[in-house]
Description:
Blueprint: E1 7-11, H1 19-36, E2 40-46, E3 57-61, H2 70-82, E4 84-88, H3 98-108, E5 113-119, H4 127-137, E6 142-145, H5 148-156, E7 163-165, E8 190-194, H6 199-202, H7 206-226, E9 230-235, H8 245-255, E10 262-265, H9 270-278, E11 282-285, H10 288-296, E12 301-305, H11 308-317, E13 324-326, H12 336-345, H13 353-370
Parallel strand pairs: 1-2, 1-4, 2-3, 4-5, 5-6, 6-7, 8-9, 8-11, 9-10, 11-12, 12-13
Amino acid sequence: MRRVKRSAVLEGYFGMHNVGDDAFCVVAASVLSERLGFDHLAVVAPHDALPILPALARGMLPRSARTRGHVRAATVAGKLRHRLVLHTGGSTLRQMNQRRCDEALLQRTGSISCHALSVSVGPFRNCADEWSIREFLKRFRSISLRDAASFERAKAMSLDVPLSRSFDLAVLAPDHMQTVARRSQRARPRLGVALRLFESFEGGSIEMEQRRILGTIGLLKAVAKLVDYEPVLLAFNCHPSKGDVGLANMIADEMQAVTPCTVEPYERDVSSMLSAVASCDAVLAMRLHAGVFAYATGVPFAIIDYHPKCADFAESVGLTPELVFAGDGSDLVDQAERIASLLSNGGPPLLSLDTARYMALEGFDLLGAHLDG
C-alpha cells in the first residue's frame, strides 16, 4: 500500500539568528525525518533567516509583508495546509501572543492538531500568563518538557495531555552535524566565552548588566595571571540589532593589552559554532546553549546564572554549584582559580551524555505514539 506522506509545521523562536534556537530547528528536522519518517517540514520563519537545514525543511513566511497582516495570514494558511503543528525549542511558552491566539482558535475548531517537543513552560510573569498558557496547552495531543522545572509546572496544570520529561534537543546536535572539530594539542589552552546583553533588550537593571560584563572582563584578566591561555569570544547570536557580535568585539578590545582574543561569530551554520565550542578546553557560558554544546561535546564548562533556565540545565546535568556563577556578576572576579582549573584539569563528572540523548529522543517517541491520536 502506498505510504501517506507526512508533513508538519515547526513552530518556535526561529529566524532570529540565534544558535540555540537554530539548533532546535536543525535537530528536530533531522530526527523527525530519520525517526518518524517526515517528508516535509515548513518552519515559521522566512527561509533566508533560517540556519542551514536538512533538505526536507524550508521557511514558509514571506521575507517582507506586502500588506498589513500578510505574515499573520501566511502563518495561519500554512498551519491549515499542513494541519499538524510541532512546537519545539526553548523558553517560548511563557505568555500568549497573536500567533498563539490564532493557533488556539484553529485548535478549538479542530482544524489543526498540536504537539510540543522539548519545550520549556514558564516561568510566568503572573497568574494571568500561567492561566492563558494552560488554556492553550490543554488542547495539545502530546507535550515533552526539556527541564524538570517545566515538567513540574505542566503536571501542576492538570492537563489531560500525555506528558514526558525530555531534554534539551541541542544535546543531539553532534549526531546531526556533518563536521564537529575536536580539541587538539595546543601550546595554549582555549577558553570559550559566550556572553549576551539581556537587560538591554528584555528589561531590568542596566547597572547589573554592566557589572556582569565588567566582572567577566576582570575574570578573564585574572585568569591570564594564572594560565597562559587563548580566549575565544563565541557570538551565539548574529541578529543585526540584538546580537552578540558587538559585545564580543568590545570585550576583545578590552583584553587586547593582556592577551589577544579571537571572535567567532555565528553565520547560520550551526555545525560551525558547535565545532568552535568543541575545539575549546573549557567554556564560560552565559548563553545557555554554549553550556549545552560544551556538555554535548565533552568540554568542561561553567555557567553564569542570569536566567532560571541556566540553573535548571546545570541541575539537570549535575553541574556542581561552584561552577554556577551569580547572574548579577557579583562573584565573577573571584572565579579565576576555578576557570584556570577547568582549563588545566577538566571539570567534574556529569550526567551521562547517553542518558541525556535517550531522554531527548523520548519526546519524539511520545510524539510518534500520538501522531494519529
